[in-house]
């Protein structure tokens, strides 16, 4: 089942995305968005079966997005996320096309129950649509429908049982093209077709899966899996190199006991493609190749992250580029499990996004609109990860653009950076001014002029925002959270929290956790 998640709180969004495949490995998040407008564009492009969306978001809210989808005749199952205070609003939303709703805080059981109901609805719709379309579809089209969960395998048997028995396909290969264009995709398809034509005693069909930038090859061979793997490793990657596809192809192979396994095997191959991060560029990803790797757990380089934060604050983009290359080298330095590499890159990117939110909201929105976190999650090669980090450097470098409406002087950037790095410590305007070799009066005036708020208010707001994250995402006591965000007196922290948010810390937890 293909799913898009739309939620303006990054931590909530990432939490849902990580939870879904744990509930069911066939739940695939194919897109994520920060607001309704970005969400609409992603839904329009990816055509998911299910959308999970918050009601209240900047720009276009959840129900306005649904209305826009209905006007565009885009049909999706929509689940809305709502707080208790919006409960009546959520019930009303059901009457205008929302499939179901989830109340905050979202539990695993709630999510599971909602998706079980939706699965049953989808199965009934698939059954109905299949009978209407089945007689005009080719075998290749049906295969794609099965892989996407839009058709059941028994429908293919009804029409193509003789073909299935005759061809007896016992292998499936997935070839994924990175940095795709239509011309390159067509050239790749032609190259693969020519290769398989010249392999003796081999029946095959090529299936275009352009949505995923993939080509699927179903083939039948009496040769052993080891020999097939060896022959294709040699021939396939030589072909790629000769035709300019070096370092931009990943491929996976799996044996089929029967065509009934096809959908699950294609999904398994796609999950395993990330192992190409540990394999050589000219090796097909197979269970045999994966089993030969002794993967280690990735230890996140916090010290590099801190240096990156400082480089952004100092607008030192040469240093930033060098540090990102250092981070990449560290990621490649050991045989780390690909899941932990991708989680590490994800954490690294989130840290940059968070500092951008505080320094330049306009560029923060731009990074979100690039769907960078989604691209990280779907990465299967170092080429993709490198491109993602280069893109971040380019966006962050725009801070240096004098025409940027939200640009700050270097002194203010360094002050903000000091707050971000040391908010949990005892910091003051006077101390920071001394470290920057300016007077407190000068710094105070400059900070207010450029940021639009005074230093004390900014620091207070930042600390309270950090405390809100900890209140929702951890089980720490309020006194411990107070210390972690720079308040030694829990009572004073609670007083400040209520003055900023309008509710006491305990009630905030009840509402949002």
UniProtKB/TrEMBL annotation:
May play the central regulatory role in sporulation. It may be an element of the effector pathway responsible for the activation of sporulation genes in response to nutritional stress. Spo0A may act in concert with spo0H (a sigma factor) to control the expression of some genes that are critical to the sporulation process. It is found in: Cytoplasm. The keyword Protein biosynthesis does not apply. It holds the Pfam family Response_reg. Signal peptide: none annotated. GO terms for biological process: phosphorelay signal transduction system. The modification 4-aspartylphosphate is found at residue 54. Residues 2-119 form the Response regulatory domain. Residues 413-511 form the HTH araC/xylS-type domain. The keyword Phosphoprotein applies. Its main location: cytoplasm. It comes from the Bacteria. InterPro entries: CheY-like_superfamily, Homeodomain-like_sf, HptR, HTH_AraC, Sig_transdc_resp-reg_receiver. This is Stage 0 sporulation protein A homolog. Keywords: Cytoplasm, DNA-binding, Phosphoprotein, Transcription, Transcription regulation, Two-component regulatory system. GO terms for cellular component: cytoplasm. One of its GO terms (molecular function) is sequence-specific DNA binding. PANTHER family: HISTIDINE KINASE-RELATED, TRANSCRIPTIONAL REGULATORY PROTEIN HPTR.
